[in-house]
Design goal:
The protein has 493 residues and is an alpha/beta fold. The chain is built from 13 helices and 13 strands. Helix content is 30%, strand content 11%.
Length: 493
Amino acid sequence: MYPEPHSIWSRRSFLCDVGMGFTGLVLGAMLHRDGIVRAQPAETESLPDGKPHHTPKAKSVIWIFLSGGYSHVETFDPKPALNQYAGMTFDKTPLSNPLTSPLHDKRSRSVVAAEINVRDKYPIIFPMQVGFKKHGQSGIEISDWWPHLATCVDDIAFVRNVWTTDNDHAAENQMHTGRHRLDEPQPSIGAWVNYGLATLNENLPSFVVLGGPTNSTTRQSIDAYYLGPRYSGVPLKLDPSNPLPFGRRHPEVLDREQENEYELIGRLNGLAGVRYPEDDRLRARIRAYELAFRMQTAVPEVLSFTSETADTRRLYGLDEDATRVAGQRLLAARRLVERGVRFVQVYPSGYGAWDSHQKLRENHAKLCASVDKPVAGLLKDLKQRGLMNDVVVVFCTEFGRTPGLEQRAGGKDGRDHHPHGFTIWMAGAGIKSGVVHGATDELGFHALEPAHYVTDIHATVLHLLGLDSRRLVYPGRKRLEIDYGTPIHDIIA
């Protein structure tokens, strides 16, 4: 049975409308790869041709983001001084007062007037809420809330001197775009990867998002902005029966009927191609329709775990309620990069989940338990499959938490937002194993120089993929110096 007549598009409408929908993302990738949608560059510009700028060390990225801001001093950056001077104010300790450091104002930028912005200025030192132990041959310390990840420290490079400027949750976008919310938006890191490199699998999107965007306000974190929507991340649902809510076949249209429709479109376009033989866009559209059709089969297969062994399911924690959601998303990420997806952005937790203004011990203990086993499972799974030679894993958040006790609303057991210094880590292709790079001060307040603004993380990822961030250009758009970042060569193997 066919759809009602009013639901049947004209060929012209179909060509126009799909360019702004899901198929348009696919179409854009095809057009870009064929050199069709690129505007004429200035003489000094060299636009991406889908090839790396230098020999890559990695093929794909799994970018794991924990929304809300996990506490660096209760996860990956132990600070015994917090326990030693607990309850004292910064100015009463023999240590330098971080609030009077020139780094404070240098790295602060708030939409709230300075005289009333006290979010990062709580002076009473709050002790660590968990213990730390050394692990592995490297002897790297990690908190007791990460027993599974602790077994992987010899495969990880921890970067303990990251900083950003936004002290509110727009920092989630800043971590992915490199821009403060008071600035003009920039494309996200996943969009730049999609823009710079050709796809490895024409049956799947190059940039996939699992579990996000976390909120209507965080769309920028997966957006391509001026690069065009064709380079934005494509959110997929972990439902093999309906992974593409806007890209599935109408239930009353049989598979063969839809195939016939695409074939008819192809013939009509072919006739137009005879009349307009130089219309490369037309030929690209024909291939895009074919790709959109193939995706209806390829995507559900990727998101179905029926072929995975019971041991693999347990490795990711799919057999436990607490770890199932994160485990499913991370297992799907492995399956996607295994099939050639360039950039998979994974949100194991919901929007703001790690934002522990109160009850930090209770909240972080529960949250760590929900992602510890799945993340460790991912690293172990990639390693045993030989994918650590192809895939780089990035684990990050938007900021850390204050060394001082948050006192708003009578707070007594939490930490506020802290962009001045925090920890991220990376593992996999092209990354040194079992190393710690950089540090914060003794109280965990400031990232010590030479510290890394968030775009240094971006530049490192792009470098590993064979891309030079300074050579990723777009006609008519001038990027700021800070947008480019600098690769962190100390953690690159």
